[in-house]
Amino acid sequence: MPSKKALVRRPSPRLAEGLVTHIEREKVDAGLATEQWEAYVEALREHGWETVEVDPADDNPDSVFVEDTVVMYRNVALIARSGAESRREETIGVEEAVARLGCSVNWIWEPGTLDGGDVLKIGDTIYVGRGGRTNAAGIQQLRAAFEPLGAQVVAVPVSKVLHLKSAVTALPDGTVIGHIPKVDRPSLFPRFLSVPEESGAHVVLLGGDKLLMAASAPKTAELLADLGFEPVLVDIGEFEKLEGCVTCLSVRMRDLYA
Ligand SMILES: NC(=O)NCCC[C@H](N)C(=O)O
């Protein structure tokens, strides 16, 4: 049976020192962030996901954003190599976690850089953002790792936000959603729906019509509910201050067989 496992990683006590690139730095309350993270994990569990905690990386402020450290396709875990040097150590615990789950492990190597937040999978199409964290060599290595397994990798420019998935994600029917002012080339996606809020562009597919979304995007939640989806809202305000979104707090592993 296909698994419904999701990797998560407890926030570091140094979370407030996390990187900010495209927004002004705001004070982060690490205690409140931990409460928000616990509610996020609970929302995954309530919707049938078995959460697997990667060993915490207390010295790495951004380690809670576990999505950036690994890209899953079928049973292969491609360990990322962040374009932000300060985030590279985060992969250590993640390598162990995916190996323990029985994944086959592959790596992005120097000079390649790639953050998991730049990778959006829709079926066997893998969109990869070329932006501040992912370079051309990283994209070539992603292609080399996954195209032989049946994926088609499509590279897209990202200049207005941190990652591709800060700009766009996809609904269960494959429609790509994004807040137009933050999307470089909406025309690259076969079906594109514009949403009214920047954080409304981020959805985690929980299964069926259910979408995990940030509470900061109520208008988008209303729009998507009107289209027959079921938004499940979580407050991730402390992570949003560090350019985090609902997608980056977990790695869903749907194609493992257990
Ligand atoms: N995939 C994501 O959206 N990750 C968010 C990472 C935020 C972190 N402060 C960073 O700049 O790397």
Q: What does the model show?
A:
It comes from Streptomyces cylindrosporus. InterPro entries: DDAH-like (IPR033199). The protein has 258 residues and is an alpha/beta fold. 21% of the residues lie in helices and 24% in strands. The strands form five sheets. Strands 2-1-15 form a three-stranded mixed β-sheet, with helices on one face. The longest helix has 17 residues, at 30-46. It is globular. Citrulline is lined by residues 18-19, 21, 62, 65, 67-68, 84, 87, 117, 162-163, 165-166, 242-245, 248.
| Helical content band | 10-25%
Low-confidence stretches: none
Query: Shape from CA axes?
Result: globular
- The helix-strand sequence is EHEEEHEEEHEHEEEEEHEHE
Strand content: 15-25%
Radius of gyration: 17 Å
The beta-strand count equals: 15
How many distinct helices?
A: 6
Distance N terminus to C terminus?
6 Å
Return the average pLDDT rounded to an integer: 97
Molecules bound to protein: citrulline
Q: Which class do the helix and strand fractions yield?
A: alpha/beta
What is the topology, as strand order, of the major beta sheet? 2-1-15
Largest sheet: 3 strands, mixed
